[in-house]
Structure formats: C-alpha cells, structure tokens
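ok so dumb question maybe but i'm new to this and my supervisor (M.) told me to 'just get the structure for Beta-ketoacyl synthase chain length factor' and walked off. so i did the thing. is this what she meant?? sequence i used:
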Amino acid sequence: MSAKLAAWIDGIGVLAPGLADWPSARAVLAGETTYVAAPTVLPAPAILPPAERRRASRLVKLALAIGIEAVSHAGADAATLATVFSSSCGDGHNCHALCEQLASDDRAVSPTRFHNSVHNTAAGYWGIATGAMAPCQVLCAYDWSFGAGLVEALAQVATTRAPVLLIAYDAEYPEPIHAMRPTRDAAGVALLLSPARSDSSVAGLSLRPDDGPADTLADPALETLRTNIPALRALPLLARIARGAAGETGIDYLAPLRLVVEVLP
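this is what came out, is it supposed to look like this??
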C-alpha cells in the first residue's frame, strides 16, 4: 500500500435497516444470507449518564452505537481516539421540532432543544460518553459525506501516524421536510483506521481520486439503501471487505470525482 492516503481497518461498526451490526451486515454483503428489510432499531446509549441518555436523539443513538461497535471490534480505548464525524444533514427530528416551535404562537425554544440542534451534537455526546479528549472533526458534504469523511480520516492517519475513528451517520426528517429530503431511515458506518497493520486489522485500504461512476450493488434492495441514505455510500467498500476480495471499489464523491479505494484483505 504505497498510496499517500492509506490505512488499516481495525474495527467496523454498522447499523442500518435490516442490518443490526457488522457481523449481520458482513453475512449479507458476502452473500451468505439474504437481506431482509426491516426498520433500524436504535439501542439505548447505555454508555451515557442517565440525564444525557434521556435527551439523546435518534442521530446520537446511531452515532454512539456504530462508534462503540467499531471500537469494541478492535479492542481499542475510545477515550484515546481522534474522531471524524460525518453527516449529510444532521438531526432532522430536532430540526422539525424547532421549526414547529418557531411556527407556533409560543416561539420560546428549549435550551436543550437548541443545543441539540447543532451539527456537532453527536460528537459532543461521544465525548461525554467516552471521556475522549483527542482531536475531533465534524463535517458535512451532503450526499458525499461518507467520502469526505473518509478523506479527512485518512489524511489525519497519514499526518499524525495515529488511529482515527470515522463515524458516518444519517437519519430521516419527518414531513414536510421529508418530501424534499426523503432519507428513509437511520443508518451509519464506523471505521477505526490505523497507520500500521495489527492483529485486529480486517483489511487495508488506500485511496485516490478519479472520475467516473461509483460502484453499485447487485441486490436492488441494498442498492436502494446505498442511494437513499448518504452514509451507506460505504456499502460497496464494505461488500468487498466482507467478501475478502482484493481490488478497487469506486465510492461516490463530489462530482465529477469519485474515490477509488483499493482494498487489501
């Protein structure tokens, strides 16, 4: 792996409609089991203190679940890890509630509702839950947010020579915004990226920009997930990892570019 932007994947977290975690997603993407569509089930964030747990939104629950799965998969210490959080839209349900409040006769917004409206809310809850004090980046690149997050995380691995946890996540808006941004459900992918191979490594990857279309998935239901939920633009990459297949995978990025990811099992 001689490319400048390269890393080893030590841990993976997945949560999506019909995909409860990385082991179940791996089995589906490897063709070992049939994909069965089902609503995303978001676990209660037990790692949060009770007060914050009650306030945690769908998006926060999602980000914490996939992040903790990736860290646990690698046997790493979450408190020591630099993080990159990437989401295309942020917390749609909280945005909807704020808009409803502002459209009512009583326009006084709850302070808790307001502080949960910012794009880095999930990153803040992650810090509370894990005690992490390492650097954290939060970004958005609309439908290409997974690709942008991957570039940022790999750049940090290359410059710091330290592990970086990428957490890419998205969730639906209620109506009427849903009609304009019809993301169907909550879903996310987390990758713990390290500069050197270890006993925990499941695959290596290197990245370069290119043009042309991104890879698609043969299963129509999985392809619908890939195109409908921006964080799941990662699915072709995860499918190659699940199959243990070396080679290149095209990931959506800012048009007219795509990201070509070379996977080394």
